[in-house]
Write a structure and sequence with these properties.
With 518 residues, the protein is α+β, with helices and mostly antiparallel strands. It is built from ten helices and 32 strands. The strands form ten sheets. Strands 20-21-22-23-25-24 form a six-stranded mixed sheet, sandwiched between helices.
Amino acid sequence: MTIVCVVLALAVAGGAYAWSEIVPGAPTTIAIVPADEVVIAPTAQFQFASDVRDARNRVVGTTPAWTSEAPIDERGLFTAPDRAGVYFVQAAIGELAATAKITVKPGAPRTVRVLPATASLKPRETVAFSATAFDEWGNSVPVTPTWHVTAGSGTIDEQGIFTADGSGVSTIAMDVEGMTTSATATARCVPPRTETAGGLTFTVVCGANADIWLNGKGLDAAEVTETIDRAVVAVEAAFGRPLRHRLNVNVFATKAGFDVGLKQVLRVEPTPLEEGVFIPPAIVAIDWTGGDLPEAIARHEITHLVVDEAAGRRVAVPFWLHEGLATLNEFPVSADTALISRYCTASAAKATQLPALSSIATGAGWRTYVSDVGVDAYYLAAQVASFVVADATSESNLLDKIRGGLPIESAYEAASGRSFATFTSELSDRALALADGYPGIASTTLGGNAGTVYVLYGQPPDARINVNIANARFGGSDSPTTNSYGCSIGFLGNSWPRGTYLVTLNGPNGRATANLVR
């Protein structure tokens, strides 16, 4: 108790002094000291004090009653429990009370573990691992672990997301403040199963890079799976980067089934000439009996997924580049596509029919152009894309610039060191240089006795031309009309005997001859 005394010296007979004592009033306020939140470790102690005052703000020595859901004695000495959490302390004198908050934080980690301890997934799927740590009292301790794949294949990022590679067992190690523990991830395919989606029945087969959903009769599951896996590997190699997702590839045995599947399963409206569809980030649909080779269609649609993933969504990739890159990646398995693309693009340049790239950059512009010239739009876009890639040194170099937020003009300049205006001004000359002379004939023999494809080029658009193909034993002639680029495509199938033939082209722009091997 603090006593305030005032001494009054009174001049009285005999020199005596009189004392008067001022006593504090009743308590009117109470506060707990310290006022700030207190943080301590489990089982630690902390001494609270009280500040009690009267109406004139004079200190009152009354001792309050201390209470808490955790142990606290009559002097205000708080003893933290071993359970981490938030606790409250109250000091009260009658109805007068004050409350303070005290947080018991977990101690240093003493044990760590990985969850899940074991995981099963398909090749190229992902699984999230998490770290849990506990102090000596069993409280969960927040930690920031370091992750490693110490055995097997696959990768893991700083968030603990593990991506399997091929089939096999991988060991994932986690380090926390000098303590290490591990988990295992087993990547393997599961047996085929039957699923129903959109009213259609599918056989789902597990491949190394994708789940293959087969619909319709006559599909060889092993052949389809091998083709899709090969296409994924090839496209990733072309771009020098892996897809981040395991794919879902819907394969239909007929065009009719493909159209129904697009509408009922993928909610996409089909078009008459469509053979494949992609839906980012990981869905592809293919008509396995389309006019192009199944692997070519697969490469085309998978390329779209890679381009979409690599370029991001900050800036739109021009449609001519998107479709051009996709068609360009068909070339290694489709010699006829490569041939037609080269020489019909050259013919378009000769006929001054190259479109302005800005006019086919948007979805609407591209669709209008395809409606005008048909599938030849894809062939031309592939050659333009090949020029861009050659200047930029690689697909990924260009797409990385687009991912960084640069439109195609700036991305091209950053990747190649040349202005896009220069590129477009030189485009016609580069396309003309794809052929040695005009008019002309080019051909390629397809593998597996599939026949020979030839291209007649360098004539005016929509012009009637004459072609004669003959050798000493067999021959034939035709009078086709050139397309919008002034070229015409022909095919010699199995009805033509094997051998070398002389091809003669006559048209408004002149005559050309070439040898063709069937």
